[in-house]
């Protein structure tokens, strides 16, 4: 009897998502294992879909009365997901309102997936004569058969349509109906392993040298090859040709003569690691040693625990991380280190590589598909002890996990905005519980949630209150920009910051300027008629980019040319606001001839990576680096003695309960980039509201007072971490239908929660950007106590309203403790 596989299918939606039963054909029985990917027929049309085997048994589900369909194909020779990862995927479905396959897909690198080709093939057993008889009298059908037989009986359908046009569709349907051709989905891997050609010396080195002498005159290229291989033993054929000037024909001749053997060898594509890391610290100072010894006790306990390491900027947390990771590796276990920004990985990877060598792997979205695929394979094969990466690196297939570090744990980038909408901290907790590993959360400005957990005893708290070797925290100047305006000083760089920049340039010291907006101007408006350049698909103004003189939407990518005159009335346009490009332009005017570097999403590319920008800043001592959030955290340059926050108010008045926390963290973190070497540091915070309490506390770098103030506000509002917040977002092209759906959801939730004193329903309310890509987005919120009942209620609402025919065209998704 064939076994039954329980399969998560890619083609499902949340409303119908579950593990489906499929028969495993006898011919596939040996390959069928939990964690292996499959191709299965799904739905009434038996559309071929990817899937993942979760379980194997000899019993079918009782709620599946129909005759079972069979698995078409098993893609993997060996499972690509471990039993723990399969368990994690099922947990994510219940926790983050995603399909099981959404969770599966996020765990695997893009290179492991496939291009899907629809292929038209002549059916097996169909004789050529019979095929042409079926096509008789139809010129198009005959032409298609000619092409199919010319290409060994099959061809991509899109290529047939390219050759013969749309009329091919009718002919193909006729041939399919006659039983001559069939369609199938062919999978082509996106990435494959890379191999290089090697030459290996198969005679003794002395004999090779003797032979080299004999061939010196008659075959000088062969002589050079033998001489090189007598030293190396083996070498890449490309390198042999480069160093000896030989042609491949000479290499082939030596192979034929029996002197060398040619072989293919697998190589792993590795991201380039530049030397932009922190200098090695041989010895921990007294404070670091005390912190290390304290956390080490938790590590040695051998059970799942969480530790919060609160250390001021420059306190030397990285050195403590390295010492703890060394202990973990020495005990035969492994570590994952997460960072919030791709910009932080070069320095950290460079530092870790100095300590742990080739056993460090890096995972982030800026790697090429081949690099990410190969790093994943190295980890899977057990060749890696330490994985460093951004949010999705938490899914690295690392066995024997002993330590999971989340650096700058307060950052909102650890929360995914797309399905599955997980927080890396939640995944980390799951992994640590199931591996009896230690979760270490590090930050100079811990999230309110994490400090609350420490305050209530769920996390152990360790403090590093001073900088490494007692270096002083930067002196902070708060520059009131209203004063500059009254004195007629415009622009993004005020008089105080200008003076401080002049001092740094005079003394040959470096500066970092932070503005959390790319582009040149945030608004272009006509003072005559009030016209503004806004996106036709999204409810946002277009941002002006001076590089190509176009205005662009950062949500959907729409762009258009911007001139000097208003397209509506012809009046002169006024450019308002500023971004990184505008700041760069002003600096070039203020300090002509000064070298500048800009680091934002517009300047970072495959050829100009984070590594190259940071390496250039470090090695060439470029005087000024301008950047967005990429420059606010983790960067450690000894010659940086000045940091400027161009507009501290930018994030302060955003319309969500985390705005003040985010602003405090940003300012504190970016100020902490200054004065990390032997020279004292300064920071200038430009603001129009210097009296604001958050600005005051951030400039004083007084986290404790900020936390006490913020947790009091959260108690009053009933916001996380005091209560849980669930968000249901409805989106669609018809705004009225989206709103109607939200009101219906609110009514259903209020009925279900009637009598629950610790739960309330809020909304509907527009999303922070109500329209994106012509889809309107409205939200309903549930503020409640903790518990699985509310999650089940939200999941039930999504299923019920997603299948309600009245709201066809409306997409609904849930989120837990959203960050925006």
Fold blueprint:
Elements lengths: L3 E6 L9 E5 L13 E6 L4 E11 L15 E2 L8 H14 L3 H7 L7 E9 L5 H7 L4 H12 L3 E3 H8 L3 H10 L3 E9 L4 E8 L3 H10 L5 H13 L1 E3 H8 L3 H9 L3 E8 L18 H16 L3 E7 L5 H14 L3 E5 L6 H12 L3 E4 L5 H12 L5 E4 L11 E7 L16 H12 L2 E6 L4 H8 L4 E5 L10 E6 H6 L8 H13 L2 E5 L8 E3 L17 E3 L4 E3 L6 E3 L12 E3 L3 H11 L5 E4 L10 H10 L4 E4 L12 E6 L13 H13 L10 E6 L5 H7 L3 H15 L6 E9 L2 H18 L7 E13 L2 E10 L3 H15 L8 E6 L4
Parallel strand pairs: 12-17, 12-18, 13-15, 13-16, 14-15, 16-17, 19-29, 20-27, 20-28, 26-27, 28-29
Antiparallel strand pairs: 1-2, 1-4, 3-4, 3-5, 6-7, 6-8, 9-10, 9-11, 21-25, 22-23, 23-24, 30-32, 30-33, 31-32
Overall description:
The chain is of the alpha/beta class and 820 residues long. It folds into 7 domains: 4-108, GIY-YIG endonuclease (3-Layer(aba) Sandwich), CATH 3.40.1440; 116-189; 194-267, no CATH class; 286-470, P-loop containing nucleotide triphosphate hydrolases (Rossmann fold, 3-Layer(aba) Sandwich), CATH 3.40.50; 475-518 and 579-713, P-loop containing nucleotide triphosphate hydrolases (Rossmann fold, 3-Layer(aba) Sandwich), CATH 3.40.50; 521-577, no CATH class; 724-816, Alpha-Beta Plaits (2-Layer Sandwich), CATH 3.30.70.600. The strands form 8 sheets. It has a 7-stranded parallel β-sheet, with helices on both faces. Strands 19-29-28-20-27-26 form a 6-stranded parallel β-sheet, sandwiched between helices. A hairpin with a 4-residue loop joins strand 22 and strand 23. Helix 1 (83-96) packs across helix 2 (100-106) and helix 11 packs parallel to helix 12. The two termini are 53 Å apart.
């Amino acid at each position: 009897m064939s076994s039954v596989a329980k399969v998560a299918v890619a083609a499902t939606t949340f409303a119908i998502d579950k593990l489906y039963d499929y028969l495993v054909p006898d011919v596939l029985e040996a390959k069928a294992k939990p964690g292996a990917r499959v191709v299965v027929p799904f739905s009434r049309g038996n559309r071929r879909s990817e899937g993942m085997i979760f379980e194997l048994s000899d019993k079918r589900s009782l709620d599946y009365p129909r005759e079972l369909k069979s698995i078409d194909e098993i893609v993997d020779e060996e499972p690509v997901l471990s039993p723990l990862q399969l368990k994690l995927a099922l947990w994510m479905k219940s926790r983050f309102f995603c399909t099981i396959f959404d969770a599966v897909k996020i765990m695997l690198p893009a290179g492991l997936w496939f291009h899907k080709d629809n292929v038209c093939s002549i059916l097996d057993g169909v004789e050529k004569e019979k095929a042409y008889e079926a096509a008789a009298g139809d010129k198009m059908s005959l032409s298609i058969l000619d092409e199919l037989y010319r290409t060994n009986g099959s061809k991509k359908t899109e290529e047939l349509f390219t050759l013969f046009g749309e009329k091919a569709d009718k002919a193909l349907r006729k041939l399919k109906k006659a039983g001559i051709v069939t369609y199938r989905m062919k999978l082509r891997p996106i990435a494959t392993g890379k191999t290089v050609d090697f030459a290996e010396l198969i005679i003794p080195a002395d004999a090779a040298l003797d032979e080299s002498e004999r061939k010196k005159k008659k075959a000088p290229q062969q002589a050079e090859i033998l001489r090189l291989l007598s030293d190396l033993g083996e070498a890449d054929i490309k390198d042999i040709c480069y160093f000896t000037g030989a042609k491949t024909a000479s290499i082939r001749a030596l192979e034929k003569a029996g002197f060398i053997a040619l072989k293919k060898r697998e190589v792993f594509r590795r991201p380039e690691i530049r030397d932009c890391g922190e200098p090695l610290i041989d010895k921990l100072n007294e404070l670091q040693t005390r912190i290390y010894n304290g956390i080490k006790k938790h590590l040695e306990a051998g059970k799942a625990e969480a530790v919060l390491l609160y250390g001021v900027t420059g306190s030397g947390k990285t050195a403590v991380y390295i010492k703890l990771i060394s202990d973990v590796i020495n005990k035969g276990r492994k570590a994952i280190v997460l960072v919030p920004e791709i910009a932080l990985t070069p320095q950290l990877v460079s530092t870790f590589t100095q300590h742990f060598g080739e056993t460090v792997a890096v995972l982030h979205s800026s790697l090429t598909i081949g690099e990410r695929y190969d790093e994943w394979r190295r980890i899977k094969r057990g060749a890696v002890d330490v994985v460093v990466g951004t949010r999705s690196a938490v899914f690295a297939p690392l066995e024997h996990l002993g330590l999971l570090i989340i650096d700058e744990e307060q950052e909102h980038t650890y929360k995914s905005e797309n399905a599955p909408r997980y927080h890396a901290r939640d995944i980390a907790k799951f992994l640590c519980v199931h591996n009896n590993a230690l979760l270490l959360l590090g930050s100079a400005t811990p999230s309110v949630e994490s400090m609350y957990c420490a305050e209530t005893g769920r996390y152990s708290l360790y403090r590093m209150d001073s900088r490494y070797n007692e270096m002083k925290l930067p002196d902070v100047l708060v520059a009131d920009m209203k004063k500059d305006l009254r004195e007629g000083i415009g622009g993004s760089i005020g008089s105080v910051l200008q003076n401080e920049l002049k001092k740094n340039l005079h003394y040959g010291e470096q500066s970092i300027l932070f503005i959390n907006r790319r582009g040149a101007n945030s608004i272009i408006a006509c003072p005559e008629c009030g016209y503004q350049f806004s996106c036709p698909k999204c409810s946002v103004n277009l941002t002006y980019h001076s590089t190509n003189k176009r205005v662009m939407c950062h949500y959907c990518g729409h762009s258009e040319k911007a001139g000097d005159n208003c397209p509506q009335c012809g009046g002169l346009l006024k450019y308002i606001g500023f971004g990184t490009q505008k700041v760069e332009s002003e600096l070039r005017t203020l300090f002509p001839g000064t070298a500048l570097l800009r680091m934002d999403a517009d300047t970072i590319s495959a050829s100009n990576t984070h590594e190259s920008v940071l390496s250039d800043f470090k090695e060439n001592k470029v005087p000024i680096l301008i950047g967005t959030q990429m420059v606010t955290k983790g960067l450690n340059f000894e010659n940086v003695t000045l940091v400027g926050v161009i507009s501290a108010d930018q994030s302060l008045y955003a319309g969500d309960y985390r705005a003040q926390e985010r602003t405090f963290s940003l300012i504190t973190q970016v100020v902490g980039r200054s004065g990390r070497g032997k020279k004292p540091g300064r920071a200038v915070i430009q603001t129009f509201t210097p009296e604001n309490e958050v600005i005051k506390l951030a400039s004083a770098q007084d986290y404790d007072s900020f936390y006490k103030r913020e947790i009091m506000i959260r108690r009053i509002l009933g916001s996380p971490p005091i209560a849980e917040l669930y968000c249901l977002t409805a989106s669609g092209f018809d705004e009225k239908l989206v709103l109607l759906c939200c009101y219906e959801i609110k009514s259903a939730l209020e009925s279900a929660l009637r009598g629950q004193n610790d739960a309330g329903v809020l909304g509907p309310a527009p999303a922070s950007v109500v329209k994106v890509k012509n889809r309107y987005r409205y939200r309903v919120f549930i503020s409640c106590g903790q518990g699985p009942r509310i999650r089940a209620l939200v999941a039930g609402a999504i299923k019920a309203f997603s299948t309600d025919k009245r709201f066809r065209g409306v997409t609904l998704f849930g989120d837990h403790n959203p960050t925006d």
